[in-house]
Records
---
Amino acid sequence: MTSDTRGAAGLSSSTAVATSSRSAALTSLLGIRLPLIQAPLAGVQGSRLAIEVSRAGGLGSLPAALLNAETLRSELTALRDMGLPYQVNFFAHTPPAPDDARETRWRERLAPYYAEFGIDPATIQPGAVRQPFTEAIADLVEPFRPPVVSFHFGLPSPALVERVKRWGAVVLSSATTVDEARWLEAHGVDAVIAQGWEAGGHRGHFLSHDLTLQPGTMALLPQVVDAVKVPVIAAGGIVNAAGIRAALALGAHAVQLGTAFLMCDEATTSQAHRQVLRQPDRHHTTLTNLMTGRPARGIVNRLMREVGALNDVAPEFPNASTALGPLRAKAEAAGSGDFSPLWSGQNFAGLREIGAAALVAELAWAFDRADGAE
Amino acid sequence: MTSDTRGAAGLSSSTAVATSSRSAALTSLLGIRLPLIQAPLAGVQGSRLAIEVSRAGGLGSLPAALLNAETLRSELTALRDMGLPYQVNFFAHTPPAPDDARETRWRERLAPYYAEFGIDPATIQPGAVRQPFTEAIADLVEPFRPPVVSFHFGLPSPALVERVKRWGAVVLSSATTVDEARWLEAHGVDAVIAQGWEAGGHRGHFLSHDLTLQPGTMALLPQVVDAVKVPVIAAGGIVNAAGIRAALALGAHAVQLGTAFLMCDEATTSQAHRQVLRQPDRHHTTLTNLMTGRPARGIVNRLMREVGALNDVAPEFPNASTALGPLRAKAEAAGSGDFSPLWSGQNFAGLREIGAAALVAELAWAFDRADGAE
């Protein structure tokens, strides 16, 4: 960044110094060469993608919420054995009390689809697919000493956060508003992920469920940078070098890309999902609570069109997904994403179908001469 | 922009050339020194603000939709006499058929407020406050030969567009989706304004009323730049030099700022509106159709909270505003914006309370060394 002092309207020289030192602090803290984080993409990737990203100089991430104990252990083993920094990501929600009436209502709404696909809903066991971070999971994770632990939907209990920090782990979490960024800083995160409206997958909101509170990245990011003293990681709508440079211009100290990795060779993105991502002109994204019970951004599919993307008929997070499981499986087996969470950010044109390491190498040059990253 | 050719992931050298030539083409077309447009802000500014912006090297704009013939003529006279480029902006909607039932329902919903303020609703004459661009208005405007004419909500009839172009005017309009950008290019606009989710005031959508189709600026802008051959003006969430540099990094050929000018000395923004804008931490924006009948982004106020910001009880655009008029007047007289359209983009922290020319001068340095603007 220039030391030019004319910039009273947005970039003063004091801002420049602060930005620069927070950027350096963040890459040093994360132990990475490039201030580029691969967003944890629950359901469409494991350690294989993360390892490629970390080897290329970024921060690879393992989404843990959908993994059982055995898989989590083997994935963490693979990541530890790599010998490079990585991130493991957990949800920090409070599981809801069982609500039979709501589960019944949901299954009634899905009844025509069960009939269409010849599914007997009585065979579907209720229960949560996604687990929050708990003491038991901390017991499992602790021996691996993951260098970076991130949370979505706020943070777990202060005791659990303290425990993770005692391991020496860097702690991250997402903010969808300035208020959430301030809250996370006050509760001990080492850096805040500013998640803008454009971002795919679950919104990380936790202080309010009002969806209108989350601004677009262009508005949220600079306000978060101004509001907190910890480094800020930009997320939402960033898919290429141009987006990275834009985020850095807005004061980001690092960037987090998710959608950009969905088409990578190492991602386990389904064929149905990939097929839709290849047709940006024919599809658009919106927030839906149907897939899990919490609003998340995905490409509009048949279920969302017919039920309404945001509808209280879906049980609370994470229980909505259970009743959808067999529908999703049947549809995907036929190459259709009609009942699947087709997570994607709003910017999914021109996704690269290449190896993750090659993608990171291509993105790397955005940091060479960008304002704010020096 | 660098001639570096490593940037397959977003900024190739061929993109660089195209960007550069479209930028130069646009400033040349508009006759301005800085690729910076002051967004037309209907209801909160007239020629005085526009003249200051044009004198400082940007493109000042006059919003015409709320002006009667006499005022429009005197404002255009002031702008013409300035001897510099300016823009005059019109709405391109089709006025709805009268709908007494809906008007009645709206007044019934507002009845408790009329009672609270001692207003007799029988005294309120129905009718539209905002006029679309018509042959009659074209007759009035033609003698002034405005150098730039822009439209919101699409374009007027092909015959009217053709007429405006015969004057030698540059024609602009706003796109909220890639589809709308392509449509506008096919229908003869000289440049497209890519209006992202963050933008304040009326969304410019015209091909669909589905609000989820409009992406954030970070996602919309680069997709529009790729989709059309005409120059692209970025709008939505840009309030300072950092935002301008981000937009240029995303491929914008010029930027349009609205909210940034709301607190300028020359704006006629009400005291109630200014007071709310000074407290970004206490307020947020959302889309509402209550104020006019079409979704527009404004700061949440009492009417929006109590009626619901998006509610079909409000008559079609532009008729919703009529029944609100006396409520708004009474509330504003008491220093309150409870019933006023408090238009603002999502990024309204740190607005500058200075003269518009000084603001433009401060913003100008963003173009000095920015990627994409060279």
Note: DSSP finds 13 helices and eleven strands in chain B.
---
Amino acid sequence: SRSLNLAVIPGDGIGQEVVAEGLKVLSAVLPQDVKLETKEYDFGAKRYHATGETLTDADLDALKQHDAILLGAIGDPSVPSGVLERGFLLKLRFAFDHHVNLRPSKLLPGVATPLAGQPEIDFVVVREGTEGPYTGNGGTIRTGTPHEVATEVSVNTAFGVERVVRDAFARAQARPRQKLTLVHKNNVLTFAGHLWTNIFNKVAAEYPEVATEYIHVDAATIYLVTQPERFDVIVTDNLFGDIITDLAAAVSGGIGVAASGNINPSGAFPSMFEPVHGSAPDIAGLGKADPTATVLSVALLLRHLGHDAEAARIEDAVSADLAERGAKPARSTSEIGDALSVRVAG
Amino acid sequence: SRSLNLAVIPGDGIGQEVVAEGLKVLSAVLPQDVKLETKEYDFGAKRYHATGETLTDADLDALKQHDAILLGAIGDPSVPSGVLERGFLLKLRFAFDHHVNLRPSKLLPGVATPLAGQPEIDFVVVREGTEGPYTGNGGTIRTGTPHEVATEVSVNTAFGVERVVRDAFARAQARPRQKLTLVHKNNVLTFAGHLWTNIFNKVAAEYPEVATEYIHVDAATIYLVTQPERFDVIVTDNLFGDIITDLAAAVSGGIGVAASGNINPSGAFPSMFEPVHGSAPDIAGLGKADPTATVLSVALLLRHLGHDAEAARIEDAVSADLAERGAKPARSTSEIGDALSVRVAG
Ligand SMILES: CC(C)[C@H](C(=O)O)[C@@H](O)C(=O)O
Ligand SMILES: CC(C)[C@H](C(=O)O)[C@@H](O)C(=O)O
């Protein structure tokens, strides 16, 4: 009999509520012969305030034992900006070498978009997750004085760029439209930009079926609102990926439905799956949060672990649920989770 | 009698066509007693191919003699990415210390937007123009090998941040809504982000009338498509400003109408005004380019030099022209320029 040994990190704010629904749907979709084991971890603002810890070496050792990690949200206004982000979220991505940050965007029928004319949106962003301006390199001198200088160093390696570009080409080749867009700013950030562009062009030669294009990040934001249908797979740097995936989420149904995977394709460390939205402290505890993004993150998790049929069942359930939302009164977090559980089991 | 001594840089692609219309409207709007002198400069791809030069010290000395600079567009596919951008556009911004990059976004009545429901959009982005990831700091080692490392260094100084933050507060205070939003990514880029945030908060204390908020750049892209009306003045870093102003242009009528000023508020060097769009080589020479963005850049130029009434006449003419566009057949570049010239003179 098979098993799924999951680390669960509800985290802060609405993280608790949405993760509960994600687990509910996961239990409902899993075949009888897959034994689900979950272990909950208390990372986030509460633990930070109580102990000053964000993520210790012992924590990392414990997390390593799991097949995958499901995360709700980390972040609270009571903690200074950057402490939990750098001390937990980014520390985990870097420690477990989550270099493929996968963020699909699909505008499902019946879902509201801020764009006029209900465009066709179905693309996936492969965001690099372990390099670029996210490395924490840099510093300050004369801190707090009128002569302060603060630097941020974007670090990019051929090794790091090539592995994520290869991952993106493989994904593009496996999709019907077989198109890959590189998004960067190679006319200004020429050192990193030329590295990305040269590796992209080199790997492209091995994938003659995949149509390629290059778009500057500023222009990409224009296309995301004027021609989102032009995109199939996008590969991009860590920071550009952060920015364009929030925009992509906004145009394809909002961050209430945007899922993501922080993937280590080698399997050397467990991958982590999380909704793109944050902890939304303003609505925490009210049962108002939409658990759909977490449920879709569970689908990404299942697909990553090879449970493709179950992943598809979740995605179909979400599509069906979203299609009916316009016609129905608003539901609570757990009502949406219940409805999705019924659908995936049915 | 007064004079206006203008450097004109048509540049590449549609730059030639749109600048001609900008000058046409400028001549039509200027009062009789203002003597307009223009000198054309041949910067861009042609000169680069002929001489290998992009912008020499002698060029900078010549440009310094002018009251202001009007630029069309620089860039051509025949020139490797980055050469003209770093060698001309950015070199000029840095040499003339254009630290206030001003980019207004206003959705005028009758103008198409990709957003549903015709939202109210009327904000201005104050983008820092001489620091951040645009400094050209960084480099590569083991270039072209599988062990290449490429870095990009974002350089931020208290001096550079404070002057642009002060400029933005002054602009916010002078506007009816008196609101200023800082856009950064201070939870990840903590060194630069805290510098920006601390200075923003310090200067805010001197402007009690101005309401302030902080938004991460990724979230800002969401608000730009879901709640653009929330913005009044935005102040941000050079790269974030590049990205969000293209998105802002897209939602408020497109880059066909987006104007910008590269301003040195001290007047130590002439300021430069240019449409946000590029050289669009695919439509160059066809008379299809919309000169409106250039004409609005001329309005920014006039306002910068104190010709407020003339600037307003241009803006009113553009509003009236745009309001009627939907009902009329498409016009050529020069027909639009002619129509605007008639309106500003009338
Ligand atoms: C919270 C923050 C560290 C994170 C990021 O910037 O990657 C978030 O915005 C995201 O997109 O997952
Ligand atoms: C062409 C490029 C150097 C420039 C920039 O990145 O600033 C352009 O995108 C702009 O916004 O003016």
Note: Chain A has two domains: 1-101+261-346, 113-252.
